[in-house]
Amino acid sequence: MKTLLGLTAALTLTVLAAAAYAQETRPWAMPGEEKVDPYTVAEANAGTGPITDPKVFEAFHGKDGLARIVATTLDMAYADARIGPIFKPFERPRIERTLNEHFCYVLGGGCAYSGRDMAAAHKDMGVKPGDMGALVEILQKAMDKEGVPFGMQNRFLAKLAPMKRDVVNK
Ligand code: HEM
Questions:
Q1: Prediction pTM value
Q2: How many beta carbons lie within 10 A of that of residue 66, not counting itself?
Q3: Please, which of 11, 16, 85, 109 could form a disulfide with 57 given CB 3.0 to 4.6 Å?
């Protein structure tokens, strides 16, 4: 009996350790998310450094406000006649987690970004310059809904704008 209990405990620990390993070191294969090709995790994958003025992340109402903004953005992006067809083939959980991480990192919220670089994440997706405009327009609506002041919105959008060259497929 003791041996059986010991074995069960050891097995449970192994399963927990494996789950922790998966979360920490394999962000391309997270439980409950669509798998993507393995990649090297690096801060540089975010495509820019963080905003250092803490007032900006405060204006987004921290992680909770940001989560609402990302959720509204994705609700609208998936439903949008122009860019919905680009989003629909991809399941939402991974995009939602990595977008929260990415935006939080860029806004200076102190999060680590564990996703791919912008070129790899949008490779062969067929994003056209106008699609970038449509997504920015949606993001602006989501930030308005959260009550983020216009000037703060623009400080964030100015960080994202240069990423267009890696997102748009020529
Ligand atoms: C500066 C603008 C943009 C930023 C900062 C951005 C950011 C991101 C991030 C962080 C990811 C997740 C990366 C990962 O899975 O490792 C992602 C994935 C994705 N993005 Fe963007 N994106 C931008 C523009 C766009 C545009 C314009 C579209 C389409 C109209 C788009 C469509 C998608 C889709 C469909 C995915 C899912 C890819 C997958 O799961 O394999 N993105 N984006």
A1: 0.89
A2: 23
A3: 109
